[in-house]
Amino acid sequence: MSTPNRVYLARLAGVAVFDPNGDQVGRVRDAVARMRATQRPPEVVGLVAEMPMRRRIFLSINRITSIDTDAVVLGSGTLNLRRFEKRPNELLVLQELLDRRVQLDSGQAGSVVDVAMESSRGGEWALSRVAVREHTGRLTRRGHLHQVDWDRVRGLGAVGDNRGTANLLAVLEDMRPADLANALQDLPDARRNEVAAALDDERLADVLSELPERDQVEILAALDRQRAADVLEEMEPDDAADLLNELPPPEQDVLLDLMEPDEADPVRQLLRYASGTAGSVMTSEPVILPPDATVAEALARIREAQLSPAVAAQVFVARAPLTTPTGRYLGMVHFQRLLREPPADLLGGIVVNDIDPLRTSTPLPEITRRMATYDMVGMPVVDRNNRLVGAVTVDDVLDHSLPRDWRDRDAAPTSSATDDGTLDGDDE
């Protein structure tokens, strides 16, 4: 079943939604679009489906593999059954736009009868066309139907009770997470929490990782606990563990219990390591492949968009199982070496193992010295059985070597480098 490039959303209302096994999970009731900066049509982020017992849930557009007027088909993965709640910067397309009185750029008044979403080459869906029926002033005559581009219709702006937040989010949407984090620090606390709560889970997770610990805790506390757990699931396990470390143990346990088990388990493991050691600062999800994987497979893996540059800079080679803790650790291959080797060659033939891996108990100053000595972007971390349990990357080292308040724009410099390369005033 193919997905058309353009879909009129009113025609999707009531269409059945199926999981990958062909079982019906509900029916489409609306589409969710996120308002963006002026001159850019809203981005469609998902659909609202009605489950049995009239429960409405959100289906991310990235989870949908096929859309047409006969059926909507979901890809593999866990279905989030949390009840859908619209956020301030979001638009329920059918509920809020159908029958809206608008004006075409020609000056003709009319009402919206349908709205189309269209996919770009990059796979992003956005509202693109609007079907508007003219007002004729006569009860017995239907006006002409116009199908025009979104930007040719006036009266389709941000709606709802929180327009100020929607407009602010539109201004901030294209910022890098670090820049958005700086912008949030300039807002009053209540406004900052309001804007943060309106971000989607993935975006908020990225921004939280760039904020001072105090702001992270306050924003997380302002969310309901299930939403907080959802955001923690979107964070890298090491960032989530750092944030949870700022909370009292009872609150840690509540949030970890609300997270999906496969997302919570690596975070629980990281929380067990002593502060300031390789175990506490490493990422537990580096790129890991078996020795019989090819160079071509390794290059495809490190090209995945969700990997940070530091994590994608090297591939670690280990025996099965390939999730941490792995089988016996064999070595690593830097991405520059991958670029120089024939695509069909096996990783086992080019693996490098002449640098001793870190142990989970290796202290941060020692990690810093070893990475500087060998000009490493990332180093493996193994347990006593020589199983790979994670990797320390250069961004991990920087985050934990700088003063604790380095992200706080209001904080005065309180730390300075000492002769041995550590930092005064840093507990870790």
Automatic annotation (TrEMBL):
<feature type="domain" description="CBS">
    <location>
        <begin position="282"/>
        <end position="348"/>
    </location>
</feature>
<dbReference type="InterPro" id="IPR038076">
    <property type="entry name" value="MgtE_N_sf"/>
</dbReference>
<dbReference type="Pfam" id="PF26205">
    <property type="entry name" value="SH3_actinomycetes"/>
</dbReference>
<dbReference type="InterPro" id="IPR000644">
    <property type="entry name" value="CBS_dom"/>
</dbReference>
<dbReference type="InterPro" id="IPR006668">
    <property type="entry name" value="Mg_transptr_MgtE_intracell_dom"/>
</dbReference>
<dbReference type="Pfam" id="PF03448">
    <property type="entry name" value="MgtE_N"/>
</dbReference>
<dbReference type="InterPro" id="IPR058838">
    <property type="entry name" value="SH3_actinomycetes"/>
</dbReference>
<feature type="region of interest" description="Disordered">
    <location>
        <begin position="404"/>
        <end position="428"/>
    </location>
</feature>
<dbReference type="Pfam" id="PF00571">
    <property type="entry name" value="CBS"/>
</dbReference>
<dbReference type="InterPro" id="IPR046342">
    <property type="entry name" value="CBS_dom_sf"/>
</dbReference>
<dbReference type="InterPro" id="IPR011033">
    <property type="entry name" value="PRC_barrel-like_sf"/>
</dbReference>
<dbReference type="InterPro" id="IPR006669">
    <property type="entry name" value="MgtE_transporter"/>
</dbReference>
<keyword id="KW-0129">CBS domain</keyword>
<feature type="domain" description="CBS">
    <location>
        <begin position="351"/>
        <end position="409"/>
    </location>
</feature>
<protein>
    <submittedName>
        <fullName>Magnesium transporter</fullName>
    </submittedName>
</protein>
